[in-house]
Batch of 3 targets.
Target 1
Amino acid sequence: MTLSEMSQTYQDSAAVIHQRIVTLRQQERTQEDPDQAFRLRQRIDELTPLWREARELAALTAHYYDRSYHKHERYTL
């Protein structure tokens, strides 16, 4: 698998995670049970870092060999 293919995979994953977050937010807004709303908010909070990481890795793998690209410090040694 090439880095550009990996980048596309990360982008696809980020899109799926983001769509799930959007769906959960809609459910949270319409939820009348406070306990259920809390659980939905908790799930959103758990998915948000995964979404952010997938977006960052998509950008990193897409531009890994570009000389002008400043790599994210979290993913460099």
Target 2
Amino acid sequence: MKKVTAKLFVAAALVFALALPVFAGGKKDVRTGAPEVPGTLVVGATANPHAILLNLIKPDLAAQGIDLRVIEFADYVIPNSALISGDLDANFFQHIPYLESNPEWSGALANAFGVHVEPFGLYSNKIRDIAELRDGSTIAIPNDPSNGGRALLLLQANGLITLNSGAGITATPLDIAQNPRNLRFRELEAAQLPRALPDVDAATINGNYALEAGFNPIRDSLIIEGAQSPYVNIVVVRKGFEQDLRIQALERALRSQKVKDYVAANYTDGSVITIF
């Protein structure tokens, strides 16, 4: 698990302390023991597009008596830890392969519903086409199992490498069977990949981090996943809370025509694709 500075932990703790007071009293959901709406719903998310979409629907949930509180994170680890510990009611930043890459997460957490896909791409500050990759070029990829495997599968799909038979979504550079250009791989935390571009020949970057770095995924990527990507971004809850009434209200709001229209109008580059 990645190292996190004490400063970040203190800041997160202060945010959680402000967010924790929830609806107490009133009727309870007999299935989960959670408060029925109205109440407070604390959701952790990465900034773009997850927190943006959550903030978009705040008024819709407020009209139902639900106070949606969005806590932004800059990494992919703390949101799951915070959800398991009860500091969050849900999080919105990951796909199923990432959730299932850690037994602690998959044992305690569950997919509530899917919302969109953020196509994953290969970017470079040094070349404009993958044909320009020279022998021995260095490519940075995410260091977590699911996104690292996703990067290698993207490279394989575009003829840059061949993986061993049976290597799936958790493939690592050790699973590379053929590497005709002798590509070298640097494994980094996903959030660091855009900043690593000056030091490598190319980097595979998650859609949300590409957006935050100012990239247009369709225009700026050398190669990109197709719209049929299996890596759907999901809202995750603790197991047993999938049918919580607040989560059901969140699903209706996030999978609404309002959100669909917003994505169509604001992500015209294809960097975010709704699945509903």
Target 3
Amino acid sequence: MKKLSARRRHPLAALVVLLLALAATGGLYAAFAPADKAQADVAAQSLAIDEGKKLFAVGCSSCHGLNGQGSSDGPSLVGVGSAAVDFQVGTGRMPAQQPGAQVPRKKNIYSQAEIDQLAAFVASLGPGPVIPKEEQFTSTNPEDISKGGELFRTNCAQCHNFAGQGGALTKGKSAPSLEGVDAKHIYEAMQTGPQNMPSFPDTTMPEEQKKQIVAFVRHTTNDEPNPGGLTLGSLGPVTEGLFGWIFGLGTLIAVAIWVAAHTTKAKKS
């Protein structure tokens, strides 16, 4: 007991006790903090799903059913994933104003926070493509534009036009213009294949190739200058030829008639 009492009165005793207390505190935090964070994440996700279910019941269930099982007015959403929700609702296509061959893009009626909640609820119905992170669709490599152009002309230009200006399809359907479309939504469209578009999962088209296509589309529709002047919608030789025949040839005919009329008047006088 005397030895223990002597050690307590040692000048370094308080420092040793403090170090032991700090070590114990750090150990306890390391042991319990991750579990608390995981529990908090689960609680936040559960809350998002609950809120998304409420929004779904009001704005989507009349067509897709209360549990997303689908109906005669809308397909099942089981397994479509959060990316499909973010694309369809983020571009204003859903909720649809009326049924038809093509659901057009329009101003969306939900905030991004509400879209995330809807996406969380739909994702809980079954596994599917998830909303991509920014680094998945944002490129900083200039070479991606040319590589993306090759991929776009091979896989996308048949419907969307070589310059991404869109085009008509059969039975009243169309491939929309890609001008002004958010990079994330272009990536999600390739992931999910909305409406008439085929899907390009990572097994068919790797993530890097989708990123390159996004880089090409963004450059072509937003950044690329047109040294030839008026683009005429970048719709190709048919539009340019029609413009030439109607306005170019039409102007020449009008000038010829004017010259002929004034020549006749001059001879009579």
